[in-house]
Structure formats: C-alpha cells, structure tokens
Amino acid sequence: MSTNDDWQELIDGHLRGELSESEMERLAERLDSDPAARQAFVEESLWDTRMAEVLRGGGDDKTAEQLVSTTASNLDLQKSTNTILRLMLAAAAAVIVVLSVGLYQQQAQAERRIAEIQSNPPEVKPEPSIAKIIGLSGALIWTGDRGKIQRELVVGTELPGGTIEGVAPDSWFELQFNDGSTVMISGTSMLTFADAGQKVLRLKDGSLTANVEPQPVDKPMLIHTHTALLRVLGTQFEVKAGLTSTALNVSEGKVRLKRLSDNGEVDVPAQHRLIAEADNELIAVNVPDSVSSWKSELHHKRGGYGKWQPATDNKPASLKAIPLKPPHAPHVTLYLAGLPVDHSNDAPVVVQPDSRLVVRGRLGSDARVHFGIRVSNPNGEFAGMFRGDLNEKQPLARRDDNGHFDEVYDLSNFTVDPSVIDRKDELASKPDGLILNGVWAFTHTGRPSGLELYEIELLPPPDNSTALE
C-alpha cells in the first residue's frame, strides 16, 4: 500500500471511529508534522460532516445535487475550505484573546488587592493584658498563647497569658494580675496562666507561691497540677507539683483541694499542709515547727537541676553539673547543679545566724566551686538569693587523690546575689530567719570541671549543734 493510500485509510478510519490506539498515534504525528496533511484532513472532515447533514435530512435530491456540483468544483471547494479554516482560526484566536484578557484582568485585580493590603494592612488588635511582671531573675522563657517565644523579659512587661518556665535553680518569676493577686515560681518550674473572667493556672512542674485577692464565689482561681485541682477564693499558700504528688502549704485563708485519682476533696485551712498522692490518706495536718538543719537525699531521690547518676560500688549517687548560659551573659558558660530544699513532709528549714553549709562532691580538676541559696518568707513569698563567693572568702575546693572534696561554708559570709541586687531595698539583706528553699553550685572555668554533688547539708550554728565528725 502506498503512503497516500495509507494516509487516506487513516483519515477514513478516524471518521468511522475505527482506529486503534497505535493508528491514532500515527495520525496525530502526521498532522503535527505535515501542513498538507492537516489541509486534507480538514477537507475530508468537512465533507463527511456535510454529507451526514444531507443524510439526516431525509435524502433531499436537490440538496445532494448541489453538494455534488459544489464538490466537483475544486476551486469552489478550496475557497469554501479556506473560508471555513479562516473562520475556525479566527474563532480560536478570539477565544484565546478572551481567555488572555480574563487572566490578565484577574492577575491585575489580585495585584491591586495585594498592593492595597500592603499599603493598608489590616489592624491587628493586641491581646489584652491580664498581668504584668513585677520581679524576675535567672534564666526564663515565656511562650505566648500564639506560640510567641521570648527570653528577654523585664520588670513591667505586661502579658496576655501564656507559659513561663524557669530553667535554672536560681530562676524566679513574679507576676501580678490586674486585680492585685500575685503568683511566683522559683527554681526549675513551669506555669501556664490565663484569665478570661476567671483565673486558670496550670503548674506543670516545680514550686508556686501565691497571694490571692478575694475572688468571686462562682469564679475562684483554679490551679491544676498532675494530681490535683485547687480552688482558691483568696489566701496565701505554696504549692509544689510533681508527676505523682501535689504538696500544699496554706499560710492564710483556706484552699479546697480535689485529688484527681478518686475525686476526693478536702479544705486545707491556714497553718496546715497536705500531700495529695494516689496512695495517701487525704488529711490536712498542722504545719510543724521549723527546724534549723537539713540534708539532701540523692541516694534515693531524683530531682534538681543537673544529671542525676545512681550510686555505684565506687561512689554514691550524685547530681552532675550541666552547662548553662546566663541570659545576661550569653558569652559565658557555667557548669551548674542545684537542688530544691523539699520540706513538704517535714518542718520548714530556717536559716539561723552563723548556720553552716556542708558540701560534699567531686571535681575532675582544680576549680573554685561557687555556692548560692534561695530563701523565702514564712508565708512562702520570695525573700532573696545569696552567694558565698563574692567577698573572696570561699576557698578553693580541696580534692583528694580521687577528686573528692568536703567543704564547710559559713552562711554569715554570704551576700546578696547580683541577680537581685536591683531589688535589695525590698528583699532581705541577710538569710537569717528565712526559709531555705534551694541550693546550687557551679564552676566558671571556661570548660567542664567534672563537678558532681554527692550531698549538701545545712547545719545550725556551732553552739546549737554537735561538732562535725
């Protein structure tokens, strides 16, 4: 079969709808590459269409004769075909123009809208403030309700709510709500706070002290922890939250505590305390008299700031210092470890004049170990922080052959920590008579010193205690 015959059969097969997939591909390739083939294809298609119209009209002889007569004249057919082709091309061009104009108009409208938004951005109303910062120190991170993160916090900043996190043992943060109620976290703690007509807080971890102004009876302040829900109408209290327990000490007023494990409830009055745990009896007891001594218990209790390490055959359990960059000096790296002074199950630990701090641990290299303490007033309010190394009266830790040290520091040499010096007029000038809440130690050698804490002990003045062994 010749090429022309093959081409004619492809056209005829197409008009009859009988082409296979491979034949359709061949037809498409020929039309794409050969202008003459496209012309012939159009002529055949027009002829087939007009003949079909005649047949559908019932076989009108006059119309058929006219069609044959017209077809017999190649010139007339060529002219008719060219006219139709021009009309088809003109119509296609018109469609393209209309589409292009529409797209251009849509693009122009979008560009005008973008320009209007850029020149006149919609006004974003700031979230209303519910509280302001009235005190802070140490490394802190605030996260807003919309995910905004801020590390550079200052006294006087107003906040719409969110989460505040203290990330070091010497961290503390005090917040005052619009009605005058205050809450404070200290140490490594995390608190979420909100007020949409009712104050709702969540103490995820750590210690919270609050002084709450009278609240509406039907809208008490709510404080959530992992294990309990506290309802507060107006009082002073302290809460310590962990994963398995909530410890509550009430100084003034009354707090209702609901244990989440069994929905048991109890009112805790002033000068009473309560531990909410799943396996303990839910009874508030009197706050015991204060004591003047305390000893850490790392051998059976995790916690604090640092890397806890269990006891081995060669050394006791320890808390290893980890790196910390102070927010006010990001170019400095300290290696720090800290412990809360947990008096939830015992009496408050009161610092006496001339009390002594005994620190036992290990160093990988010779280094001066800097110590600090955090104290509060009897009602739980923050009272200040103190350091023992600022007057150069703190000796270099003396290590034995295995790197162990055992040092005694006189708290009478401790002075106000620089981080709270701007509030020295409103905070305590000495730790005497105040409640010990936390202790920490760090080295500042520019490199890891291998500092580990085995035990920290507060001893009363020598006249009121036995001598050190």
CATH topology of the largest domain: Jelly Rolls
What is the typical, i.e. mean, pLDDT? 79
Give the full name of the CATH homologous superfamily of the largest domain.
Answer: Galactose-binding domain-like
Based on CA atoms alone, the radius of gyration comes out at 42 Å
Description:
By secondary structure, the chain is an alpha+beta fold. The protein has 3 domains: 3-72; 131-286, Sandwich (Jelly Rolls), CATH 2.60.120; 294-464, Sandwich (Jelly Rolls). Helices cover 23% and strands 34% of the residues. It has 5 helices and 28 strands. It has a 16-stranded mixed beta sheet that branches. Strands 17, 18, 19, 22, 25 and 28 form a 6-stranded antiparallel beta sheet that branches. The longest helix has 46 residues, at 74-119.
Features:
23% helix, 469 residues, disordered C terminus, 16-stranded mixed β-sheet, 3 domains, alpha+beta, 5 helices, 28 strands
Q: In brief, what are we looking at here?
A:
With 469 residues, this protein is α+β, with helices and mostly antiparallel strands. The chain has helices spanning 3-16, 21-33, 35-56, 61-72, 74-119, and strands at 131-137, 140-143, 149-150, 158-159, 162-166, 172-177, 182-195, 199-211, 221-224, 228-232, 236-241, 245-252, 254-259, 265-269, 272-277, 285-286, 294-295, 307-309, 318-320, 322-324, 334-340, 356-362, 370-376, 382-387, 404-410, 415-416, 435-443, 452-459. The chain has 3 domains: 3-72; 131-286, Jelly Rolls; 294-464, Galactose-binding domain-like (Jelly Rolls, Sandwich).
